Fold this sequence. Notes:
- The complex is a heterodimer.
- Chain A is α+β, with helices and mostly antiparallel strands.
- Chain A has 2 domains: 7-204 and 385-644, Sodium/glucose cotransporter (Up-down Bundle), CATH 1.20.1730; 219-384, no CATH class.
- Chain A has helices spanning 7-28, 34-39, 46-57, 60-73, 76-102, 107-112, 118-151, 155-203, 333-339, 369-372, 389-405, 410-413, 422-451, 464-472, 474-508, 518-542, 548-572, 578-597, 600-607, 622-639, 641-644; strands at residues 219-223, 233-234, 240-243, 255-260, 263-271, 277-282, 284-289, 295-296, 299-300, 315-318, 342-345, 348-354, 357-362, 365-368.
- Chain A starts with 6 loop residues before the first helix and ends in a 6-residue tail after the last helix.
- By secondary structure, chain B is mostly helical.
- Chain B has one domain (7-72).
- Chain B has 3 helices and no strands.
- The chains are: A alpha+beta, B mainly alpha.
- At the A-B interface, helix 5, helix 9, helix 11, helix 13 and helix 17 of A face helix 1 and helix 2 of B.
Amino acid sequence: MIYEAAPEAVLLFFLFVGFTLGLSFWLGRKAKSSAGYFAAHGQIPWFVNGIAFAGDYLSAASFLGICGMIAFYGYDGFLYSIGYLAGWIVALFVVAEPMKRLGKFTFADALDAKFNSKGIRVAAGISTLAVSIFYLIPQMVGAGVLVQPLLGFEHWQGVVLVGAVVIMIVVTAGMVSTTWVQFLKGSLLVVFSAILTWMILDRGFEIKTSGIDGHEFARYTIDRDLLERPGDVIEALGGRSVVAPEGPWKAVPEFVQLKEGDRITVWHLEDSESPNQVDVVEAQSITRSTGQPDIVNGEVKGTEKGGPELHPVGFVSRLPNGEQSTGPVGLASFFSILQESEVVLWPSKTIKTSDDVSTTVYYQKKTMGGQVLRPGEHPRFQGIRKDSGWGRVNFVSLMLALFCGTASLPHILIRYYTVKDEQSARKSTIVGIASIGFFYVLTLYLGLGAMTSGAMDVTNTNMAAPLLAKSMNTWLFAAISAIAFTTVLGTVSGLILASAGAVTHDLVSNFRTEPMSDAQQVRLAKITSVFVGGIAIVLGIVFQGLNVSYLVGWAFSVAASANLPSLIMILFWKGVTRQGVIAAIVVGMVSSLAWILLSADTFSKVYGLPEAGALTPFTQPGIVTIPLGFVTLVLVSLMTKDSGNTNREA
Amino acid sequence: METRPNPLGMALFFVYLLFYAGFVLINATAPELMERTPLAGLNLAVLYGFALIVMAFVLSMIYGVLAGRRDANSSASNDQASTNNGGAK
């Protein structure tokens, strides 16, 4: 689709960035000590901290990724919402209060409280860095994805812009400014999602055959044998002629290319009521070839608004009881009506005609509402509907990693040090659960609302939420876009701060003979923040094409495998030894990373190799590597029982 | 140093864990069950999913209220000890 920068979006974005930076500088005057820089002096009110949890946690993957996944595949994206929220139960009931009690600045503090061991600090510090950087990549890629259509910048410019703003926020006032940015973003995200949901319900459903640009998709019913006469002008096809399939097009008999003048378009064949007839349904196509402009639907893609481009899509094709439109719907009837309706989804198929030319066809697929409201439609979740046992194991493994991952994410855990005591830690977690849970309930309305909004870009699932807002009105679009940016800002600041804390407290201070002064610690943390921010910018540019929600799942798996076993066992078992903790972190981190790098998903999406070459039976490591971390911890602790526990390392 | 999480938190944790495990296992073993529409035309997938989110909130509120009372009791009866504990951080 062709996006042009909306002046409202640009204005709101810069207003917001300006306000945030102003706030940062103002707060920065007060935060000079390391306790202020890393933990905001433990003086953040619990309610603010709770909303900041939401601002920290609801990343671009939650907002853009989940909405996009629901908009294109239905219910499956909501499985992420459920898993991401469930993880907070572990955080609240098991981890929150002991974390606050044992630690000071980083979660390594809590692990190390009993042992005072360099090894634990180094292992925990490295796992913090690994998880945070995994988490950073999709946020930065998301920033680039957003900036392109909204502000009219190139991908790299967007990444650099966001990176620079975040570095300024983190360097000026550390945790203080980060917290307030996250608070602001968390509130805005929840409030505007609620407004958007209300507008979706108010709009209800309406049967359409076109998206918001008004292009009516054609559908002809013709005799099957007409397709066997390539070259003849066929009146029943609107005066088009059939192009004889060549090369790879022969392998896709469900598509037919039609020619009208010089323009070749792709159509999808559907079974008709009579066996002798066939429905020829207009599809959309984009042909990319190296060094040539893209061809969309048989024409050179325009560069300005109004030029040839893919049409926005997303509509209901049938409503219950033969209705044409429903008018406003309720919170429950939204689902019960959709359940009995039929929507048009747009799956895609890529046909490679030569080494550097490929055509991707997006075709209409009428889908029962009941089908988009059930799990197992997205390729990642289809395994639960197939007979293969590994598909089911893979699903359980992902849900386990989401459940265990939240309470193991370093950038979430450090928020427990910004409040004054355990009671505040508990209360702010409850506020966090309330606001995050409320938002996740809305994701299902937002996603399904986007699916039927007529504004979807078939090539870009990440844009579903902003485009949904666009179908309502321009200012809402501007507001949602600006919020999506701040979503990236809030989460990235938290991640950079967590990394800086790990480097300063867990890695560098360990290897110095003299303790660092307060001012030295803050200076080192600021330098680290700039450095990590720089790495994030580079990675955001390098991984440009990667799906936003994809890497976040990895980060959860690695965090859960590396950190959770030690966090839990230290609380429950007196026999834990220093060596046990170190071994569990290292084994959990290495095994989960190795599993991911050798899995079918990574083979096909990152290396571009055939999936069959993968060395792991399924993609999600959690179900193997989380228990492995626990087993390692217990075994190593038992083996080192006599030497480790009571002997403190100097 | 007291590191053990309190029994109330653990009890609520296991209640939720059971409920979550039920959802995951139904999806993994009998996904067709999720398509049933037991209530008001809503299918089990939507109902169970929303219930999981609402339940997380309800359990956390119960925990907040009960743990708040426990704290109030313990600080009233044992003021000196809790001040020491706070000072040790």
